[in-house]
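Explain this fold:

***
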Amino acid sequence: MNRATQLARLAAEPNDWDIIVIGGGATGLGTALDAAARGYRTVLLEQSDFAKATSSRSTKLIHGGFRYLKQGNVSLVRESLHERGLLMRNAPHLVHPLPFIVPAYQWWEKPYYGLGLTVYDKLAGSLGIGSTQWLGGEAVREKLPGINAQGLQGGIQYFDGQFDDARLALALAQTIPSCGGIALNYVRVAKLIKEKDRVVGVLAEDTETGRTYELRAKSVINATGIFTDDIRRMDNSSVRPMLAVSQGIHLVLDASFLSTDAALMVPKTDDGRILFVIPWHGSLLLGTTDTPRPHAELEPKPLEDEIAYLLDYAARYLARKPKRADVRSVFTGLRPLVKAGESSITSKLARDHTIVVSDSGLITVAGGKWTTYRKMAEDTVNRAIEVARLEPKPCRTRELRLLGSMADTNPREWTSVYGSLGLSVDKVCRELPDGMERLHPRLPYRVGEALWAARDELARTVEDVLSRRLRALMLDAAAAVEMAPRVARILQRELGKDETWAERQVNEFTELARQYQLR
């Protein structure tokens, strides 16, 4: 995936696009892939990096959403479980089954949650991935060696899906060009172009060079997640906001706090949320919170109340009580939830998606979640066909394998995220004298992988590499800071930058990483 080649094509073919998608998160990438796979001339533009915001900061689950079953939203759960099955088939190197255990400390919890999770399994139908099991106390302790055993009476085991969110976003971005489309990061939509009060294209700016591109299309789709209302205001400055923004944080701990390949699920916290402790890339994720926020921002910051909340729950369920000093990273994401009337309780808002068409023809898709991104995309492109009167073409993404798709990978090994591209990554690593060396002793990433990220995965900054191509910033912020100078030198050589650029990259990344570290 070459950025210069795609920019050259954008300059040579400014007109006659069928669909322009604004936004390079899960929804935008999925929509652009759906459109390109159907054969529509498609371009996706992202103002920053792919999955820079919400789509790289999830709980790393592809799941039906057990809490939505408790809310009675059976249709959303059934749809999500179906999409979970399709993703495991189309991107098996990135999405895999994971056992979850709900511990029972009260006599009624096993039958209550056991019944609910059995129904949850049944809703998956033929795409189910495992059966619910009732466990005794000893079995739970064996499967979760670090659990608080005081008062433990047993538990329920069920299965759901786990994935690497930023890597899945990247796989979508890489698959778009293979279907004939364009997917570009660091190209900002500065203006919507209108003729006779209809949106007919966009004015886009390459944020690296300042060059602008006037692009025309039959349909323009706003899929910008937490920034949805910003694009809607470009179209109509008086439009009412449609989103409620909610913040969720995750704490990352050493795997030794639970020492397991299974996840722990707390089905109900004091404020009614579900909480997870999940093994991921050799560490433990603890999350998440749900805190209403007044506005969207690209780099939201964790709140002290949220940190205390998660550490308190960890102390209740883990035998070894984690302290602030044990947290290797804290990352924060914002959820774009579609408002339900005047409610300010974001935890009560479902993750259904909404598609809105403005008077000018701008199509906006909002809400949803990673698990249902493909269905959201299918619905959005179907709507674009109607609005723009495009020649109808069937959706092809139900069976479309993403670039790198390969079964029988080992999710415990970091290199599994490359799937069938792993041999090519190894080749690039071996081309460098130090390419097979680790960038840091606490993490599995090799020097050559940073070069691969710049050369084949459109990484343009140290943050792109260490946050989303490699997951160092999310897993161990201090280690990521130590890796930054070496990564900056690799990017400097590959991208043709100077020493000043490299120094600025290290300084900017170091400053960013401060908010991922607890002090």
